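REQUEST ID: PR-0412
SUBMITTED BY: lab tech R.K.
PRIORITY: routine
TASK: structure prediction, single protein chain
INPUT:
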Amino acid sequence: MGRMFEKRKHTMFARYDRMAKQFARIGKDIVIAVKAGGPDPDMNPQLRRVMQNAKGVNMPKDKVDAAVKRAMGKDTASYDEVLYEGYGPHGVPLLVAAATDNVNRTVANLRAVLSRGGGNLGTAGSVAFQFAKMGSFSLDPADVPDRDELELELIDEGLEELDEGTTEDGRDVLVARCAFSDFGQMQRALETRGIEPVASEVEYVPSTTTDLGDDQADAVLELVARLEADEDVQQVFHNLA
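STATUS: complete
OUTPUT:
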């Protein structure tokens, strides 16, 4: 009985930590979007996209509204969006997308985490060439009655692939990817068809993947989890198969 309780408690805290991280990430995205294009989502496609993502992770509307209001304040911190490059154990390339108000702190933290995990921070351009920058839209299958028809229609809007996937909380989705340069066009195409993405984001897709044994892969994923736990880190991309 005690062991079952501890397992449930661990699962509950893990779910809470994931939700807290998602809300914090979206809160920063809201600040960045509002400062770039204003507080009206109808006039700010970037903010509209972030609000869709907030809904996708069940972020309460009052928290979203409060984040928008805070973003309009003169004393609200501004965040620099920075992409860091490095390697994990066994030579696995990593891209770490961060939003930070203190670049020196972020670099020091990432260097320490990577070093402890058997990796290292690289120089600009050392890793990014191994990834393609793409727009990614997660769609609820219930909103797509005819997948083949939608795929044909979106090819003219820049669609490069339409695959099955899952969200962080385990929901099945269809993932539509396009070149980053076609992000806005794809967003408008989905809106025109009345399809509201569960989530939409910039994604770095590896050109090749690395196969490792279970123990080696676990070491990489453990490092990725530590990186993702950093308050300045928004996302981590790797090429682990």
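NOTES: The longest strand covers residues 131-139.
REVIEWED BY: pending
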